[in-house]
Design brief:
The protein has 250 residues and is of the alpha/beta class. It is built from 7 helices and 10 strands. It has helices at 19-41, 55-61, 93-100, 121-136, 191-194, 210-216, 244-247; strands spanning 4-8, 11-16, 44-48, 75-79, 81-83, 146-149, 174-179, 184-189, 199-204, 237-243. A 7-stranded mixed β-sheet has the order 1-2-10-9-6-3-4. A 3-stranded antiparallel β-sheet has the order 5-8-7. It binds 6-phosphogluconic acid.
């Protein structure tokens, strides 16, 4: 099935047949961005997300052929967000990636920059911010080479939920958030950090996302009501890999 590609400025939207197709395209993009970053800066800093959609991507990156195409000794993994649960918990975003990818590749432990979901959310957020600032050596905004994002049916991304005051945060890089649905504490990168990345990559699949996606990819002002609709890279690029089901009206 042919791929529908729409490029507007720094936004690239690709509609592919299904989750397998967008996961393979994402794995190729991950490999390419890692190679370019390592060639330019001898390291590659990627922040990844949780949820179900990226699981196939993590499994692909953790296996042949993609696993052998990345210099894992130069890769640093961060998270866009985490649920405030222990790392052994089935809902942990760390565990989600560890079981499928991190445990399958030779990445040094010191290069896995986990959000400590088992800690008090405020402390976990501050410690993670300190880790990011030390790694990037910045007092301002870090520039992640790649940030992988998903999108919820309500248009949330990372753990930035519609109407949340965390969306207006401009000083901190990381904040604790509480979300009613599901009743949970989380820790998330802020919008300013996401929008400062060199490459943002959205993976979106399934018909449950169609309605909000058509709003977010439209030119209407309504899209700003949705956190994913406020992803506008300041200097980088954003790629949306969408399956045919989610694309529906796009
Ligand atoms: C999380 C994610 C979150 C996720 C969306 C989409 O911790 O849940 O980081 O932002 O990307 O909720 O989740 P699905 O991929 O499961 O639809």
């Amino acid at each position: 099935m042919e791929t529908l590609v729409k490029t507007e400025g720094e936004r690239n939207v690709q509609i592919l047949s299904d989750l397998e197709a967008i996961s393979r395209e994402a794995a190729t993009l991950f490999v390419n961005v890692s190679r370019n970053s390592i060639a330019a800066r001898k390291k590659f800093a990627a922040a990844i997300s949780g949820g179900s959609t990226p699981r196939r991507l993590y499994t692909l990156l953790g296996s042949f052929p993609y696993r052998d195409q990345v210099d894992w000794y130069k890769v640093h993994f961060f998270w866009a967000d985490e649920r405030c649960v222990p790392k052994e918990d089935e809902t942990s975003n760390f565990k989600n990636a560890f079981d499928r990818l991190l445990s399958k590749v030779p990445i040094p432990d010191g290069q896995i920059h986990r959000i400590k979901g088992e800690e008090d959310p405020e402390k976990a957020a501050r410690d993670y911010e300190t880790d990011i600032r030390e790694f990037f050596g910045v007092s301002g905004l870090p520039v992640f080479d790649l940030i992988l994002l998903g999108m919820g049916e309500d248009g949330h991304t990372a753990s930035l939920f519609p109407g949340s005051k965390s969306l207006e945060e401009t000083a901190r890089l990381v904040v604790p958030v509480y979300t009613e649905k599901p009743n949970q504490n989380r820790v998330t990168l802020t919008l300013a950090v996401l929008n400062n990345a060199a490459q943002l990559l959205f993976l979106v699949a399934g018909s449950s996302k169609t309605t909000v996606l058509s709003e977010i990819l439209s030119d209407g002002e309504k899209k700003r009501e949705f956190p994913a609709g406020r992803i506008r890279p300041v200097q980088g690029k954003v790629t949306w890999l969408i399956d045919r089901e989610a694309a529906g009206r796009v």
